[in-house]
Amino acid sequence: MTIKTLILDGKAMNRAIARISYEIIEHNKGVDNICIIGILSRGVEIANRIAQKILEVENKQVEVGSLDITSYRDDKKVENHVDQSQINFSIENKKVVLVDDVIFTGRSVRAAIDALMARGRPLKIELAVLVDRGHRDLPIRADFVGKNLPTSKDEKVKVMVSPRDGEDKVIILKEEN
Q1: 0.90 exceeded by the pTM?
Q2: CA neighbor of 102 nearest in space, from 62, 174, 156
C-alpha cells in the first residue's frame, strides 16, 4: 500500500483532539462522573490525550482505561484469548466516553459496547472518534468527531500516533496495482 493523501498532520491532529475534549466538557457540563475508555490500540493513545487536555482545561483528572474487544468481535474468533483490557475502576452509573481512532462499519464499536456492558452498567456511553469515514453496517453514530472524512470502501485510513508509530498523522492508503 502507498500513501494517497495526508489528512491530518501532527498539529491538525492535536487541534482535533482538543476540539473533541472541549466538546465532551461542554456536552456533559463539566467532567463529573465521567471516565474515558480507549479501544486498543490507538484509541487508547487518543483517550489519554483527551484526558490530558481535560486536565489542562478543567483541572480535574478523569479516570482512563483501555478496552480489548478481541473476544467480542463478530468477524474473528480467537481461541484462548487473554483479555488485555485495563479498567481499574467501576463503570457502574458513570458516563463512559468510549474512544476509537476511526469509525467505519460500526462493528468495532458494537463489540466495544458489548465488552463494556459485560463489565457493568454505565449510566451512559458516548462515542468519540478521531476520524469518521462513513460506510456504516450498523446504526451507530459518534457523538464527538475530530474529522469527517468521506472515503471509498476500498481506501484504508491509517491513524499514526507518536508513541506507537514515531509520528502523529492521519493518512489514506491505496492498494498498489
Answers
A1: yes
A2: 156
